[in-house]
Amino acid sequence: LAWVLIGALSFAVYKAAAAWVRGLHGAADRPSQTRGLVFLRVFSLGPRSDRLFDAIARYWRHLGCIDLITGPDVAHSTVQPHQLLDFLAGRLATHFITGAEALDARMQHRDTAPDLDGCFRVNNFFCHADTWEQALPRLVQGGDVVLMDLRNFSERNAGCVHELRHLAGFVPLRRCVLVIDDSTDQAFLRQTLTQAWRAMPAHSPNWSASPADFCQFHLASTAKSLRELVRCLCDAA
Predict the structure, then answer these.
(1) Of the four, 41, 64, 141, 229, which is 20 to 30 A from 15 by CA?
(2) pTM over 0.85
(3) What's the sign of the alpha-carbon dihedral 236, 164, 78, 132?
(4) In whole angstroms, how far apart are CA 8 and each of 2, 14, 18?
C-alpha cells in the first residue's frame, strides 16, 4: 500500500511542478503572434518528405499550427490519435473533404490555438483526387508562410505545377519558400515559373516581381542546413 501511495503522490507532485513551470515561463516563451505554416510537397518523395516535415514541425509547432494535404508519405508524423482510431474502425472516410461544404467545415474547425504544453497542432486535410485543388487556395490563404518541398520535382509532377502557378498568381512571394536539392529538375522549375508569370492574373500581388524573386532554398543533409531553413521560414513569416 505504501508503494502505491508513493506512486500517486509522485504523480501529483509532478503535475503541480509542471503547472508551476508553465505558469512561470509559459507567457514569456509563447510568441506574441502565432504564425501558420502550409506544407506543400512532391508526393513521390515518400519517407524523405516525412523526415523533413518531422524536423520542421519540431521547431514550428512552438510558433503556430501547420496545415497540409495529408497523404501516405507524411501519415506517420501527422495523423492524430482519433483519426487513427477512425481508420481502424473503418470510419476514416468521414474525414475526407468531398466538396465545398465539407471544406468550409474543415476550415472552421482548424486547431489554431496551442495545447497545454505550448505546442500547436498539425491540421490534416484529407482530399480526394478531385477535391485537393479546392483545398489549396484556402490553405495558402490561411497560412502566413508556405513551404513547398520541390526535391525530386520534374515534369511528371503535374500537381506541383498547378500549385506553383497558384502561388505565383495569388500568394505574395515574400511568404513562399521553395526547397530544392540536386534531385530537383531546376531547368523545368525555371520553365514552370516563367510560364506561371505569363499566365498571372491582373490582380496578382506579384506583378512587380519576377520568377527569380521566389526564395529557393537548397537543402543539404546537415543539421546546420535545416536550422538555416527554419530561419528562412521565420523571415518569410
Answers:
(1) 64
(2) no
(3) positive
(4) 10, 10, 15
